[in-house]
Amino acid sequence: MGVRPRRDSTKTQVTMNILFIMCDQLRADYLSCFGHPYLDTPHIDALASRGVRFPNAFCQAPLCGPSRASFYTGRYVASHGVMANEDPLKLGELTLGDYLGDAGMEAVVVGKSEGHFNAQATSRFNVPPGSAQEQRLSNNGFLPYELFAGLYPDPILPADLGYSDYLRSHGFGGDNPWETWANSAIDNDGKIVSGWQMRNAALAARVPEEHSETAFTTDRALDFIDGLSVADKWCLHLSYIKPHWPYLAPAPYHDCFGPEQVMSAVRCDSEKHDPHPVYQAFMSQDYSENFSRDEVRQTVIPTYMGLIQQLDNHIGRVLAKLDEKGLRENTLVVLTSDHGDYLGDHWLGEKDLHHDPSIRIPLIISDPSDAANSTRGSISDALVEAIDLVPTLTEYAGAKICSERLEGRSLTPLMQGRLPSGSWRDYIISEIDYSDRGPRTLLNLHPYDCRARVIRTRQWKYVLHERFRPQLYNLLDDPNEFNDLGDDPNCAEIRADLHEALFTWHRKLKSRTEAQADRLLTMGPERDEADFGILIGHW
């Protein structure tokens, strides 16, 4: 697509740029720098050694679309309104791309944006079809350099998919080359089998590694970086689809790990005894019942690990390119994920619910500025939310933080060692919507009742469900979240306190987004009668 960043010719100093790397469905504990005993991710570990690692980072929703909308707007799900993957952002929402644009920086995406087009709304405002404005609105505020979501079954295969054209140009043909090559394997009988079936996860994808999804996405990012100069001011959102399912890896990554390197599932039999109705409904889903079997975990998880190993190697290529171009020392690098993956923990597959394997995310930020020298290679135990990235990156780019809209907090003080961890944040919020998931049918719920809000402190996690009792976990005594205290009479006061805290959070959401709220701080509580000539209540 050939999008190039904006240039600011008025500035002579070296500009500061942003590389924002996001993996999809990557668990925080599946990186060696976060403690995995078998995975070795040296390039990501090296990034952590040059920056700050945040082990207590959480997403705002355990689902791609809502989570990414919070990442890109700096606002909670209840504020931006993207509840499901297919929901588009409201036209009035501002995104990271808008804030960076005010600082002369173009936000470009290579890979997955999870954006969706609201044709009816854009037509009302006469947004020109095919314009850059329409493209940004369709991709959560990013201008696409190469879009690649990585999931292209036959009914939804885009006619203009760049990856399909790429594969065909290298001799990998077919009506749907993604399905035929990237999501297919050859079994022991010589038969072509599908990556959609987890039983095939141990097989190598038909596509060679150098032409795989991760390699293609990386190559396009390198193309973008190759066209940069030190004078350019840019933000590249490098958004990988992996290790998101289908769990299928190209050789040699399909057999880098074996069943003996699969960690034991974090689950216990007591979780199945009289479980919460929503939890029980999710445990009954096919993906959960399958991931509850050791055979499935020992087949799938080694491939999940191989996909992460592949990602690390390709992220290393990107970081090496920054070094080659002389851009590393003026580029802030962020690495994170939109949510986690249960992988059989708590008798569950996929994500969707409130446990830490689902809502906890990896977060590493490497700030090249001298102000961050004191924190290099450090760990911040602060409670951090995905919405904190927009104000962080906005501040870094030199743009004004939009206080009347943004609900996150800039992480700059934590990155530069200027704020004690104890004075930061008391809790994080995550929101759940399963209106387009199977449990809705099992529970016979209206879509608006398929919601839950999670408030997590250092000691407690409280989950407020519509139509059902709450859930409660004591994370100090029960860090694995096995014992649900949601109906324990001895915890009634704690539940009431957390319920009130959740209500307080909800009351403080920022809805006055069209007006400048900070103007209220400067104008005072009353109109200036001398300026406006408006007299109210005088005798």
Please explain how this structure is put together.
- With 539 residues, this protein is of the alpha/beta class.
- The protein has one domain (17-417): Alkaline Phosphatase, subunit A (3-Layer(aba) Sandwich), CATH 3.40.720.10.
- Helices cover 30% and strands 14% of the residues.
- It has helices at 42-49, 64-73, 77-80, 96-101, 119-124, 132-138, 162-169, 177-182, 213-226, 277-283, 286-291, 294-324, 356-359, 389-397, 412-415, 438-443, 492-507, 519-523, 529-532; strands at 17-24, 52-53, 57-58, 106-111, 143-147, 184-186, 192-194, 234-243, 331-337, 360-361, 363-366, 378-379, 384-385, 428-433, 451-456, 460-465, 471-474.
- The strands form four sheets. It has an eight-stranded mixed β-sheet, sandwiched between helices.
- The radius of gyration is 24 Å and the shape is globular.
- The model is unreliable at 9-13 (pLDDT under 50).
Which descriptors apply to this entry?
Alkaline Phosphatase, subunit A, 19 helices, alpha/beta, 30% helix, 539 residues, globular, 14% strand
